[in-house]
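Attaching the record inline, Q. Sequence:
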Amino acid sequence: MRYSILILGKNMRKIGINNFRFKGAPWKDQLALSQKVEQLGFNSISMGESWGEDSLTSLAQIAAVTSKIKIGTSIVPTYGRTPANLAMTALNMDKMSEGRFFLGLGASGKAVIEGFHGEKFEKPLSRMREYINIIRLAMNNEKLDNDGEFFKTSRFRLQFESFRNNLPIYIASLSPASLRMTGEIADGWLPIYLVPTNMEHSLNLIKEGAKTKNRQLSDIKLSPQVSIYLTDNHKEAFDRERPHIAFYIGGMGVFYHEYMHRIGFGSESDKIREAYLNRDRDKAAKLVTDEMVAAMTIIGNLNECSDQIDVFFNAGIDEVRLVLNEPDFESYVKSIESVSELIQ
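Structure, as predicted:
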């Protein structure tokens, strides 16, 4: 079992902000907020991408106005760019930020990959292995020689040296096979909707993969993204979170639906997915139970949220990356200021 670090009896919590982009906010305000996030002592800023603003140009802007905070993707899909292209970008980001960048990768899902990117969604795990292999070749300033099923690259090496040859690569994995792969080849794990009291099965699968490469679980950093609502109005917070959970179960392929079965919410997940696929999203959201929200979300006043976040750290989590689902930019800023008190 892994535990959070204790110094003078106090938990030194590593807390990041994920999905760090309030839609529609002026970029000058977002950049000013990134500086405040750094000053408040957060560990990282991470951003993902789907079919909106891309994460990498956004993070480059943030890197330019900060100096200490870690920045990274959570996640970029492995179908939207070639691995050589992403290697150039990620390693340049790491160089520009002087070693503050981490790369979070995921497969995404069939709807996004085929409907938006126009790529065939097939064998995502095999593709991920090749993808990471090519990035690591670039990271070590080697020729990008990969004679694989998906990528046949040769002869070229990047025309600049990487800032370091161990830029952390995280994988957002859910299925048993992908969790084993995470243990084999990743530096970290980026789960979503993690239940800290019911993650032993997932950790055992990561351990299985790690063992095949003579690695330990401690070699893989555990960094879940968790929605937080710092409030005294529990009912409102529960109701605000339900549509987010329903969307992943019903609208993001089969992975989250299957995952819910593995953590004990199978029958609920079946009903939610059925309603969502029947285009009744309101009904799907209402079918997300209080038990589901409470298991995967941090909700309450400061003391309640402090106790709940400690459940994650005491279960062995290295960093919690918080997601704040606020209705406007002013509320978003205030929430970041408020949750910063959880760092201490």
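DSSP finds 14 helices and 15 strands in the chain. The longest strand covers residues 101-106.

More tomorrow.
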